[in-house]
Amino acid sequence: MIRVVVADDHAAIRAGLVMILGDADGVEVVGEAADGAEAVRLAKRLEPDVVLMDIRMPGVDGIEATRQLSGVCEVLVLTTFDLDEYVRGALRAGAAGFLLKSVESSALVDAVRQVAAGDGVLAPSVTRRVMREFASSVPRSRPAGLDTLTEREVEVLHCLGEGLSNHQIGRKLHIGETTVKTHVSRVLTKLDLRSRVQAAILAQEAGLLDGLGDDQVSGGPARP
């Protein structure tokens, strides 16, 4: 059972999200929060698998709450706005995914399942520009810590940059998903990253994916 906390300051929207998730097989909403501070308190007490997090909330906003929950649980940001500052802020804070509230109910449930399984999710409308913006935001250089990765971990990092899920990485490298998760965890630790989405961005920034076509950095929902 996937345990979820829903954080949104609008009661009607929160109720709708709870209804959607509550009707999904294998998903249980264990808590509701009206602001970021409450979301952090609930997540630390209830230990959910995923927090579905709004960004614009009073007091502690969703980005700061996401930052505080790094290492506690996965955070899937769900917002009305796909403004670049929100996308950047959420991903740099360690969000495992970013979706718009216009997402179909089935896609939302699928995204929650993906994030709970350790995969990342980005809304199709923002995937390409986000990856390109992050890739061009700093000079291409060899990131600190890259030399500490094993050959297999470099392969996994490359796969993350391609947007592959754990299942897809396993098939490509001919290893089990449990082994993939172990390698991903080690990559994040060695590179001091908060999420696989950040790892995908780092792979772009380092130029590891030079030569990939647009169809390999877009689509949807993407799974960094």
Automatic annotation (TrEMBL):
<dbReference type="GO" id="GO:0000160">
    <property type="term" value="P:phosphorelay signal transduction system"/>
</dbReference>
<keyword id="KW-0804">Transcription</keyword>
<keyword id="KW-0238">DNA-binding</keyword>
<feature type="modified residue" description="4-aspartylphosphate">
    <location>
        <position position="54"/>
    </location>
</feature>
<dbReference type="InterPro" id="IPR001789">
    <property type="entry name" value="Sig_transdc_resp-reg_receiver"/>
</dbReference>
<dbReference type="InterPro" id="IPR000792">
    <property type="entry name" value="Tscrpt_reg_LuxR_C"/>
</dbReference>
<dbReference type="GO" id="GO:0003677">
    <property type="term" value="F:DNA binding"/>
</dbReference>
<dbReference type="InterPro" id="IPR016032">
    <property type="entry name" value="Sig_transdc_resp-reg_C-effctor"/>
</dbReference>
<dbReference type="InterPro" id="IPR039420">
    <property type="entry name" value="WalR-like"/>
</dbReference>
<protein>
    <submittedName>
        <fullName>LuxR family two component transcriptional regulator</fullName>
    </submittedName>
</protein>
<keyword id="KW-0597">Phosphoprotein</keyword>
<dbReference type="GO" id="GO:0006355">
    <property type="term" value="P:regulation of DNA-templated transcription"/>
</dbReference>
<dbReference type="InterPro" id="IPR011006">
    <property type="entry name" value="CheY-like_superfamily"/>
</dbReference>
<keyword id="KW-0805">Transcription regulation</keyword>
<feature type="domain" description="HTH luxR-type">
    <location>
        <begin position="142"/>
        <end position="207"/>
    </location>
</feature>
<dbReference type="InterPro" id="IPR058245">
    <property type="entry name" value="NreC/VraR/RcsB-like_REC"/>
</dbReference>
<feature type="domain" description="Response regulatory">
    <location>
        <begin position="3"/>
        <end position="116"/>
    </location>
</feature>
<dbReference type="Pfam" id="PF00196">
    <property type="entry name" value="GerE"/>
</dbReference>
<dbReference type="Pfam" id="PF00072">
    <property type="entry name" value="Response_reg"/>
</dbReference>
